[in-house]
Amino acid sequence: MKNKILAVTNRKGGVGKTTIAVNIAAGLATNYKMNCVLIDADPIGSSTLWLGDTTINRLKIKRLTLPNSPNNKYHALQTWGATLLNTSLNCDVIIADLPPIEIGVFSELINQVNKIIVPVGLSSLEWEASFPLIERVMSASKDINEAKGIIVPSRIHPQKIIPREKIIEVLPTQWTLAPQLSLRSDFQKASELKNWVGNTAKNSTAHKEINKLVSFIAKNIN
Ligand SMILES: Nc1ncnc2c1ncn2[C@@H]1O[C@H](COP(=O)(O)OP(=O)(O)O)[C@@H](O)[C@H]1O
Ligand SMILES: [Mg+2]
Prior knowledge:
The protein has 222 residues and is of the alpha/beta class.
């Protein structure tokens, strides 16, 4: 597997990064029998709080805070990336849960990971905040044919279906659009119960949505 290092990130907090990182890591381990390492790169440690004591098979969690200071950004991020690469030698896939990211750090991050997963809600504010990320990936990966960026429509009102065709039409080729995750209390409940929706809300709509997203991700990394 060549694309094994995935980073979930956004310039904003509260968009669903941790929810997505935790559930796709558990989903890839459970549904695809992949050995996963969930990297908690957020100094706040939300995914460690969520899954730190997990007994999910084939899933490990490791803290490795993303260097987010403007000083010596380049070197610090290279070291961070090298640790990820080293970790990746002993597993099938790495999912890194990142803190809200500054655009300069993001530009360096692009070179350290294989895929960038960006949760985006339906509001124009969230889209506008994501444009610089879309643009950076576009210019950094002009020469590659496969999508480096994956947009995950996140926290979508359950009665809303996103206009997929319209979004795909305007997305650059370096980006792809994943199936959507709706706003569902089962996601919140899973975090309270410190497990993934596949265990806390088996066969629920939230679980089905995650399974769809997990299979989309699995296709994109193989
Ligand atoms: N699809 C969803 N449905 C319902 N609640 C969600 C969903 N995604 C995230 N949340 C909730 O929104 C809040 C922020 O989510 P979180 O995953 O921690 O975002 P981030 O890591 O981007 O800050 C949490 O309370 C979480 O439970
Ligand atoms: Mg988070």
